[in-house]
C-alpha cells in the first residue's frame, strides 16, 4: 500500500506568457505535484494563456499593481480552504510578491522576494521587504500551528545562503543575493523563526543543487548557478520530506525559464482532508 503523500513544486517562470510558449504547459501536464507555486508571472488574468490554466487545477493569481512586474500564483489540484494575497504590508501587498493558501494539513505560500541591486533603491526595497516578512513568518507559523496545519513558503528567495549554494561565490561576495547581511537574515529565518530549508536538510553535503542560471554565456552548460529557490518549512513538515529534486532541463535549448522547478515529496500530509494517497508512495 502506498504511503499517502503530497508533492509540492516551486518555480520562477520568468513571465508566464513566455514560459507557456516554451514548455511550461507541457511540464504542468506531466508534473506529479499536487501544489505548484509560481513566481514572476508578470501578467494579469486576461493575459494568462488559457493553456496555462488547464482543467483540474485551482489557480490563484496575485499580479503586481505595476504592469509587467513581479506577480505570484498558486496552482493546486484540490480547492484551498482559504486564500490570502499579501502579508499585511501597506507597501508590498499590491506588489505581486506573496500569496498563500490553506489546505487540510498544510498552509503553502508562494514568495517572490525582491532581487535588489547594491547601491540602489532596489536594495533598500529588498531590505524593507525582508524586515516586514521576517515578522510575518513568525506570525504565520504560529497561526498555522494554532489551526493544526504545517507551514511552508516556497519560492524565489533571491538569496544564496551559504557558499555551497553558489558556484562562483568568491566573485559575488559584494553582489545582491550573497551579501553578508542578506545571508544573516536568512539564518534568522532558520534559527529564530525555526523554519527549515527542506532541500538542504535532506542533502546537507551536496553542492547546490542550483536552481537558477543566467542566460548569459554558458552558465547553464557549465552549471555555474545559484540555489535561490527554496521550500522553507515548519520543522514538523520538514521532517516529513522524503525526497527532493531540481527539475533541470536536459539542455539550454529546452529551458522554459532561467529557473528550474524545485520539487519535494512530503509523506503523511494531505491537501484534501485526509486522502492524499496519490499512488506515488
From TrEMBL:
The keyword Thylakoid does not apply. The keyword Magnesium applies. InterPro entries: AP_endonuc_1 (IPR004808), Endo/exonu/phosph_ase_sf (IPR036691), Endo/exonuclease/phosphatase (IPR005135), ExoIII-like (IPR037493). It comes from the Bacteria. It holds the Pfam family Exo_endo_phos. Residues 10-259 form the Endonuclease/exonuclease/phosphatase domain. Its cofactor is Mg(2+). SUPFAM superfamilies: DNase I-like. Keywords: Hydrolase, Magnesium, Metal-binding. Belongs to the DNA repair enzymes AP/ExoA family. NCBIfam families: exoDNase_III, xth. This is Exodeoxyribonuclease III. It comes from Lipingzhangella rawalii.
